[in-house]
Design brief:
The two termini are 13 Å apart. Helix 1 runs antiparallel to helix 4 and helix 21 runs parallel beside helix 23. The protein is α+β, with helices and mostly antiparallel strands. The longest helix is centred in the last third of the chain and has 38 residues. The chain contains 24 helices and 17 strands. Strands 2, 6, 7, 8, 9, 10, 13, 14 and 17 form a nine-stranded mixed sheet that branches. Strands 3-12-15-16-11 form a five-stranded antiparallel sheet. A three-stranded antiparallel sheet has the order 1-5-4, with no helix packed on it. Strand 4 and strand 5 form a beta hairpin.
Length: 765
């Protein structure tokens, strides 16, 4: 007969059930940490309440009955008021979930209430996973599943135990259940006593096996297209950074640079196509008014009316020759609805249909709504030379210049010809409204050019050098308060430092005053190359502003005035591809952690059919490589053997071979004579600690009972089992049970508490 293991009592099962329910509630609350929803106060109150009732399980009995009667009416009224005042659907639903968790987690529960905690927590975790696709979700769903399985197992045990349903029922108001009177220290000690670590290890291995099988099925099942995040993102709004919107004020981009979090990750199938310094274009601002750059109304309307639900966006380039190069972008939420793209491309694909807008002349791609989750898209046929083709701009500019000016239409004209028309493309020549500021700009242009007629590229180079000579770079800037245009006032203050926005704005006004159409571009510049997973990490601190100048014929070229003399795209030089990546390698611990996140995005979030086929191809290549290596090794060994046999035989080789064969034969004979017997004796000791497990167990009980046994008959039976022949043995299991009872009597003081010890729920083995 098998020995009966110690067990938990009904009250201890209820105590474990209460503990697991509280842990499950706290685990569900942790989803708010990576959900961009205003629910921190409610989350904190819920966490404090649940921790309090976990520490003192008798607290819920002190809650007045009136609170339980008014709880659900209050929750309903709060939800209706929250829904009405916020005008959104999802945030009030999440706060409603938190309120229900607060009530259920701090009250005595029946089985139905325990199941409600599981459902409420699962709702929070699934919403967070769908909306954020965060790496934390992957770890959290695994922990939540393991705790839920343990919770359901304990609930089933407590309900199935004798009088379990009655013990699990919620007590009357003001009454403290029996299980809530026990202390946690004693409970944890009992839990350690009854735990079978072999079973716990087996359960853990089974859970890991189920997770592994699920992962294999995930990789093996064909990919199907799912709709946009189960439409949950439509019920949640998110505000983007002001520096990446249609209107930016002075200092908006610099504010973004204070944040060092990763905004964009980029996988490149062929790193040799990485430019020396990548610029990630996002927003184009052509209109200047009241010291602020913005996108003109006409360009905004063109972007708005182009909205379409699609997972495919055609570019302006022809299909590339040779093997395609894919740029896969993982764009974090909360940055902008405008998507970073380095330049002109052949085609762009999303992992799921999106409401997308496209402005072909500007080469700008934007989503209709602010993304509330990570957005993944893949670009093919990228052109990163810093030029934006625009064959129709010259004709548009000539037609706009022939149109009636505001003065001819009855409106006062400002101090430049850019004020002759408020619409695009004349906005690319717009200057400040004050004539004094325009005059200062033109005097500065005369100093830069020396009266010579320069091309757009020549003027850009000289203007960039002039700005670098008169103004150092700094993020800390104190502009003089003169009431003038801020960019003109900064240029006139010789030696005053400036940041990228000041350099870009000042250069834009200088180029326009010289007659060159110019626009401001905001986005990101540069980035770090992750040394562990080989991808670009672009941080918010890489936010930047630069210019694009029209060359007068067919294209816009990039100018970065912050770089001084190296402003013009054509003058930039440096290593590209792997050599450029070596200069920006990031081997920090933050890069290690971010490498785990990119693996989550690659293998889980964006695991589409193409990635699946690539993984299968990689596994096939690896298998073929291992097989080829093994085949080469065997062929090499066979060739060495043949070469050795073909060598001439002499007396020394014969003696060597004869001696070797004799030694092998002697070893085999010794093994057959003595080795097998020694092996079985050693194996028996390794497995059982001795030649016989019954004798070993009898010796263990003799050592436990000590030199003065409580029962001489028990001592005699154990001695026969330990030292006597098998024919004299009593029934071993019965003898060990009697020895166990005798040992209990010894521990209890020679039988004073023998009756209570024999009837306890958890018996010591």
């Amino acid at each position: 007969m098998e020995r009966e293991r110690p067990r938990l009592s009904r009250d201890e099962l209820q105590q474990l059930r209460w503990l697991l329910g509280g842990l499950l509630t706290l685990l569900s609350l942790s989803t708010v940490a990576y959900l961009d929803i205003d629910a921190w106060a409610l989350t904190g109150v819920t966490a404090v309440g649940v921790l309090a009732v976990l520490a003192w399980p008798a607290l819920p009995a002190r809650v007045p009955p009136l609170v339980h009667k008014l709880a659900f009416p209050f929750i309903v009224v709060f939800f209706v008021w929250d829904l009405y005042t916020t005008g959104e659907a999802l945030p009030p639903m999440i706060r409603l979930d938190l309120l229900l968790l607060l009530y259920r987690g701090t009250s005595y529960r029946k089985k139905r209430d325990d199941l409600q905690i599981i459902v409420l927590g699962l709702i929070l975790i699934m919403i967070a996973g769908v909306l954020t696709v965060a790496l934390e979700f992957g770890a959290q769903i695994l922990v939540f599943t393991a705790v839920t399985l343990a919770f359901l197992f304990v609930v089933t045990l407590s309900e199935g135990a004798p009088a379990g349903a009655a013990a699990a029922a919620a007590p009357e108001a003001g009454a403290v259940p029996a299980w809530a009177r026990g202390g946690w220290r004693r409970f944890l000690r009992r839990l350690r006593e009854v735990s079978d670590w072999r079973l716990l290890t087996l359960a853990g291995l089974l859970f890991v096996g189920v997770v592994g099988v699920s992962a294999l099925l995930f990789m093996a099942i064909p990919r199907f297209q799912l709709e946009n995040s189960l439409f949950l993102d439509r019920f949640l709004s998110k505000k983007s950074r002001t520096g990446f919107s249609d209107t930016i004020k002075l200092g908006d981009v610099v504010d973004i640079q204070q944040d060092d979090s990763v905004a964009l990750r980029v996988d490149i199938s062929d790193p040799t196509h990485v430019p020396a310094m990548p610029y990630w274009r996002m927003v184009v601002l052509d209109e200047y008014r009241d010291g602020t750059f913005r996108t003109s109304r006409r360009l905004q309307n063109e972007l708005f009316i182009s909205a379409a639900l699609s997972s495919f966006v055609p570019g302006m380039l022809r299909p590339p020759r040779g093997p395609p190069v894919y740029w896969t972008f993982y764009y974090e939420s909360g940055i902008s609805r405008h998507l970073p793209v380095p330049g002109t491309f052949y085609q762009l694909r999303f992992r799921e249909p999106q409401w997308v807008q496209q402005q072909n002349s500007l080469r700008i791609i934007a989503l209709r709504n602010e993304p509330v989750t990570m957005t993944a898209y893949r670009v093919e046929g990228m052109q990163t030379d810093g030029t934006i083709p625009d064959r129709f701009f010259s004709a548009l500019l000539r037609n706009a210049e022939r149109a009636p000016t505001p003065a001819e239409a009855g409106r006062p004209a400002a101090g430049s010809r850019a004020a002759a028309g408020p619409g695009y493309p004349l906005t690319t020549l717009g200057l400040p409204d004050r004539p004094e500021d325009v005059a200062d700009l033109r005097r500065t242009v005369a100093v830069i050019t020396g009266g010579a007629r320069l091309s757009a590229a020549e003027f850009s180079a000289q203007a960039g050098r002039w700005l670098a000579e008169h103004h150092p770079y700094s993020l800390q800037v104190n502009l003089p308060k003169t009431g003038r245009d801020p960019f003109v006032a900064w240029m006139d203050a010789d030696g005053l430092p400036g940041h990228c926005e000041l350099f870009t704005g000042a250069f834009t006004l200088l180029a326009r005053a010289a007659g060159f159409p110019t626009r401001v571009v905001t986005g990101f510049k540069g980035g770090d190359w992750n040394a562990y997973e080989n991808y670009f990490m672009v941080r918010n601190s890489n936010a930047h502003a630069w210019c694009e100048v029209y060359d007068g014929s067919s294209a816009w070229f990039r100018v970065d005035p912050t770089d001084g003399a190296a402003a013009v795209t054509a003058s930039q030089s440096g290593p590209t591809g792997a050599a450029a990546n070596e200069r920006r390698l990031d081997r920090s611990w933050s890069a290690r952690l971010d490498a785990v996140r990119i693996l989550w995005y690659r293998r889980i979030v964006s695991f589409d059919q193409r990635t699946q086929l690539a993984l299968v191809q990689s596994l096939r290549e690896t298998t073929n490589g291992v097989a080829a290596t093994l085949r080469d090794f065997l062929n090499g060994a066979a060739a060495l053997g043949r070469a050795w046999l073909q060598r001439p035989w002499n007396l020394s080789r014969l003696f060597a071979w004869g001696g070797g064969l004799a030694a092998v034969a002697a070893a085999l004979g010794a093994w057959r004579r003595w080795g097998r017997a020694w092996w079985w004796r050693w194996e028996g000791r390794r497995r059982h600690g001795g030649p016989d497990p019954v004798r070993r167990e009898a010796g263990r009980w003799l050592r436990r009972l000590g030199p003065r046994p409580a029962d001489a008959a028990v001592w005699a039976e154990l001695e026969r089992l330990r030292y006597g022949p098998r024919a004299t043995w009593p029934e071993p299991q019965a003898a060990f049970r009697r020895a166990r009872r005798a040992w209990r009597e010894v521990r209890a003081g020679r039988g004073q508490d023998a009756g209570a010890g024999a009837g306890s729920v958890g018996r010591v083995s």
